[in-house]
Amino acid sequence: MTFSQKILDWYALNKRSLPWRNTVNPYKIWLSEIMLQQTRVAQGTSYYLSFEKHFPTIFDLANASEEKVLKLWQGLGYYSRARNLHFTAKHIVTNLNGEFPNTYKELVKLKGVGDYTASAIASISFNEQQAVVDGNVYRVLARYYGVDLPINSAEGIKYFKTLATEVMHSSDIRDYNQGIMEFGALQCAPKNPDCTICPLNDSCVALQKNLVGKLPVKLKKIKVKKRNFNYLVVVDGNGNTLLQQRTGKGIWQNLYQFPLLEEEADAKTIYDLYNKVLPTVKAKDIRLFNKDAIVHKLSHQHLFTHFWILKVDEVLEDGIAFSDLEKYPVPVLIADFIKTF
To answer: Which coenzyme or cofactor does it need (predicted)?
Structure first.
């Protein structure tokens, strides 16, 4: 029995019941694939169901405000995915009459859609012969065939795409692609996979050579940057506060936050520093909300965060009631503070 047939047989017996598995609708497949990039299925499922409820069609998503899209995405991370999702929905509705491209060649042109996502949509929705290569597939192929090329190198990416294409099950590409990804997620897991019950264990190179824990190979990550975040939570006599929208191309673009002072500060220096970001605010009292820094870890940076409560006498001109803060899309770091405060 071939490698691909064993994957198909395993999938038929072990596949999870997931909401996007009941459809070949390209809009819903696209939605699920974008959400599951760098996100575990357990976390992504509830977000998928929420988006499907609020935006049942691509027209609903295209007509929504970016603020609503970001609010529903809140907590899922990598917010550029949500912005690209919204941009692409509007593009398809405006320029393609709401019809999804039905080939890999056209799908990969969409903003936020790369090789993997285009291959997944093309194969699952349109039965096109395209091999998918995601983190799970890299792991299965690297272990089974004993490939030690780094999966995040140019050479490795090209090699594994070619290998995946050569071994795919062309007559049932829809189930095969979903099957090999599921196999990597459940059976050929990143850590401590149970190789004793694996249907591929009689011919897996990594198992034979004791390389399961060493494959796949990945080039070292870039150095993690440390940043000091001091959020200034202004509170006026009416219990209102201030929010500002993040701009630029950095993290959390277009999300809202409390005014931010990004440098080291303590109880002695905060009085001299806060005016850098709040020049018109005169604080009568400043207190530190959290003594120990909250360390918020992102892929390439760690944010050492403190929240400072600034009491002011005057009524804030653009003040927002704390009860209204839930309407604004904010980073999960801010959302957690609001719940606590």
So the answer is: [4Fe-4S] cluster
